[in-house]
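Review form for a predicted model. The reviewer records the input and the model, then writes brief findings.
Reviewer: anonymous (R2)
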Amino acid sequence: MSEKSSTKTNGAMKKGTAYWQTDWMTKVMSNGYNPQAKLMFLRIASFGESGCWMNNETFQEEFNRSESTIRRAISALWSKGDIIITGWNGHGRKLYAAGHPKVKPSLNAMFEQTKRKGKITTIEQYLDKIRLRKQR
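Model under review:
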């Protein structure tokens, strides 16, 4: 039997890219979460460095789950540090996969941009302004 020398793709991902198989993804997927939290994490991670804009109601409609199930999944992911939650002055919540290789540089760039505009002078002011939820 001859081996297949090339594979066909639908163009959705670059050849050889499989984020779900990287170390930061497998760590979360084997971290003892329930299936709903894993599904939520994969959806949040799919947004990459731009951050997931979806509110809880949108998650409810997409996954056909109750509000409390969505809140528990987000809280579980956040409490273990696998997602980062931001919101400018409490508005415009965004969820980021903490382990994504492009998220931290993106958040740092947002800090620098805000600093250049003169809205803040220190990282503490920035964290307070975006209300970055810190782990306890």
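Findings: The first helix runs from residue 23 to 29.
Further findings: The CA atoms of residues 6 and 13 lie 15 Å apart.
Recommendation: see findings above.
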